[in-house]
Amino acid sequence: MKKQNRIALFIGQADEEYQSRFITGFLKKTVADGFDVCVFSMYR
């Protein structure tokens, strides 16, 4: 059984432009490297 690598990303207000661009780049790199990514965000 292959061990799955996971990363959790906690970020505030993911709909803001800077955070949105960061998440997009982060996901492209980590998914390409074989990680599962869970994104958690809070909104006010």
What is the topology, as strand order, of the major beta sheet?
Answer: 1-2
Number of strands: 2
Q: How many distinct folded domains? A: 1
The number of distinct helices, counting runs of at least 4 residues, comes to 1
Strand content: 25-35%
Largest pleated sheet? 2 strands, parallel
Q: Could you tell me how far the N terminus lies from the C terminus, measured between alpha carbons in angstroms?
A: 41 Å
Order of helices and strands: EHE
Shape category: flat
Structural class: alpha+beta
Mean pLDDT: 89
Uncertain parts: none
Helical content stands at: 25-40%
- Over the alpha carbons, how many angstroms does the gyration radius reach? 12 Å
Written description of the protein model:
This protein has a two-stranded parallel ribbon. 0% of the residues are buried. The chain starts with 5 loop residues before the first strand and ends with a strand. The longest helix is centred in the middle third of the chain and has 16 residues, at 17-32. 36% of the residues lie in helices and 32% in strands. It is of the alpha+beta class and 44 residues long. It has one helix and two strands, in the order E-H-E. The mean pLDDT is 89. It has one domain. The protein is flat, with a radius of gyration of 12 Å. It has one helix spanning 17-32, and strands at residues 6-12, 36-42.
